[in-house]
Amino acid sequence: MAPKPRVVQAFRSMKEIGISEEKVKPVLKKLLMLYDKNWELIESENYRVLADAIFEEEDSKVSDPKKGKTCDQEESIDDEGPMTDEFVRPLKRTRLKTQEGLASSSHPIGSSDVAETFLKEPKVEDELLKSNVGNMRAEIMPASPGPVSIQHPSSVPALSDHSGRDKGKQIVEPTPNYKGKEPMSPHVPSKGTGPERVSVALRIKDLAPEPSIIPNKCVPATHALIIPKEEPFTDDIQQDEVPIAVIHPDSLSRRDFPVGDFSTEESNWQEPPESLHAAEIAGAGASASVSEMHTSCELATVPDEIPSALEIASSPSREEGNEMLALDVSKKSPARDARDAEKIEGNGCVVGRLLNGSFNNHCSANGSVDDAGGEGLVVAPQRQLTPNELRCLHDANDITKGEENVEIPWVNETNKESPLSFQYISENLVFQNACVSFSLFRIGDERCCPTCLGDCLLSQKPCACACQAGGNFAYTPAGIIKEDFLEECISMTRDPQKQCLLNCTECPLERSKTDDFPEPCKGHLKRKVIKECWSKCGCNKQCGNRVVQRGVNCKLQVFLTPDGRGWGLRTLEKLPKGAFVCEFVGEILTISELYARNREKHTSPVLLDAYWGLKGVPKDEKALCLDATCYGNVARFINHRCLDANLIEIPVEVETPDLHYYHLAFFTTRDVHALEELTWDYGIDFDDLDHPVKTFQCRCGSKFCRNMKRPTSKYFEK
Ligand SMILES: C[S@@+](CC[C@H](N)C(=O)[O-])C[C@H]1O[C@@H](n2cnc3c(N)ncnc32)[C@H](O)[C@@H]1O
């Protein structure tokens, strides 16, 4: 029997946004059952409910691959030919998840699977995205040059494992400082008013039909997805199941994340008074496909078409101020099962957020807010956002979009602004020309510890990895950096007496400014480097010499600073000296690419120049930096503090002995209290007007502030 016209039309509409008939059919069938064949609901807003339900279905499959196709998908519907151009799933973090299994000694060495662990297909670099961050400032953060020399090992245990998703976090403590370097710093947002900024914040999770269409009371408790019945596809199906993509606020678990969960009695954190705009979008981004045994993920080469599929979630008839989007974004991990909900008023405004069991109502353009103890629906908003805007929406519960081991919320206790657009990534990705490839083949046994078992830090005899580090590991069994190692890092950065600048014979920075007559190298700070065990080592993933590669594991929060420094990062728990906080993650650019971007002043880079002065003249494709302006992780929110910052950045060698590429990890330089803002010294020379990236008026408040000494500064001490 040929499908009915409404079915055909639904297929057509979905096809227009790149969703195949095969995907539409089972979901449509379920919706018809759930909505009791109320086609108006399904057809409203250009089939928004249908599209969202499909996305959720897809996301649920990703989180549970075993689900595979639904039985309905096997059924056939004869009408139009199959549709193509399916939307591509967003890139997900692969590092920890995949590595977990790979670290095992039982894993065949040399397996391409292992090599692929770190390979990620890049996401797309798009100009629109850049424009979205147009009001971000660009500066160059401290670079990190430096040699390597690691000290003794110690033991191993992992730090707290708050999320339960990973383990082994640690504590570290450094004491940085320094000057005249080339720092980099991520960009930043000014107080929030980027022209293209989308003030989104939905906690979307569950999308729902317009309240005006489905009264709250009529909506039964929700599930994210309903298991379809194996019945012939027809729009005559009757069903009274729970609507897909409709969420009942009460069914959302209350988040207990920050409040009352600090490990220190010093905590005085309180739940933000008002709900924050939060948005979460899934589905935008490129699919992660691992390719060869090279690591490269080139952001520049991935087509950027997929996100268009999300636009259906918004209504063409948008009113001023309705910037919320209500896409039903699926869960990404078990950690996301417990979430707050935000309610959005019919016209698209975020209405409330479930916090500690109660709804805090907020913005309601038309004044009607449902605060009936969570009886309302989460409704989708209206404005048609571009794919790039969608990609960059931030979920207030977790700005990482599930990319990290732990959720990292953001709060704004000052105004209604939300963080500027950027794409969260948890691993560095090659933009285009950077030469970053690592392979098992290139790592000789002398550069790894294939015969180790379990935890290298517990071994009586230093393993090969320890030997490369000077015979000692940098970490203690508690997972923090050893005191002496850390102190040396700090003094090499802060103490003019201990600083050592390495000069390139031909500096990539100067070369990028001009090929004709490059100026002499201004020097790159020599640094100590940490060498971690990796996939070719015989130890396991919980080995004490694998800290940075296990990712973020402490409770962090992005917040709007009240003193004009934009957004910042703070810890929600006490951190010991030497604890690993996070890595600086961004796009891997060549210095030439960085300069090209800097002309637009959109960058927030950190130079990977630790070895420039040691290794001769790095070729252009090997003179690298990280830029977190458009793609980055939570480190992009860390503000600068002159000299006495509580974080220090330390180069970390993980996958490759290639000196031109390494990870840059932040460790605490001292004990840090809960709720204390995390800062690092970008290494900016505020007097260097020739710096490739724009500097800023420093408001770090440190008594060592270098900017205060500037006569032009209002902070100048007379
Ligand atoms: C890496 S970003 C840090 C996050 C940034 N605050 C934001 O809102 O995204 C660097 C930018 O933050 C601001 N910033 C960081 N530290 C600052 C400081 N000590 N004083 C004033 N502005 C600062 C500057 O605009 C700088 O360009």
Q: Could you give the topology of this structure?
A:
Blueprint (H helix, E strand, L loop, with lengths): L4 H12 L4 H14 L4 H25 L31 H8 L9 H5 L10 H6 L4 E3 L45 E4 L153 E3 L5 E6 L2 E4 L25 H5 L18 E2 L11 E2 L4 E2 L33 H5 L14 H12 L6 E2 L5 H6 L10 E2 L4 E2 L24 E5 L6 E5 L8 E4 L2 E5 H8 L6 E3 L16 E9 L6 E2 L6 E7 L9 E6 L8 E4 L38
Helix pairs in contact: 1-2, 1-3, 2-3
Bound molecules: S-adenosylmethionine.
GO molecular function: histone methyltransferase activity; zinc ion binding
Main location: nucleus
Keywords: Chromosome, Metal-binding, Nucleus, Transferase, Zinc
What does this structure look like?
This protein is mostly loops. Helix content is 15%, strand content 11%. The protein contains eleven helices and 21 strands. The chain has helices at residues 5-16, 21-34, 39-63, 95-102, 112-116, 127-132, 387-391, 464-468, 483-494, 508-513, 591-598, and strands at 137-139, 185-188, 342-344, 350-355, 358-361, 410-411, 423-424, 429-430, 501-502, 524-525, 530-531, 556-560, 567-571, 580-583, 586-590, 605-607, 624-632, 639-640, 647-653, 663-668, 677-680. It has a five-stranded mixed beta sheet, with no helix packed on it. Strands 7, 8, 15, 16 and 17 form a five-stranded mixed beta sheet that branches. Strand 12 (556-560) and strand 13 (567-571) form a beta hairpin. Helix 1 crosses helix 2 (21-34) and helix 1 (5-16) packs across helix 3 (39-63). It is globular, with a radius of gyration of 26 Å. The model is unreliable at 66-139, 142-297, 301-381 and 713-718 (pLDDT under 50).
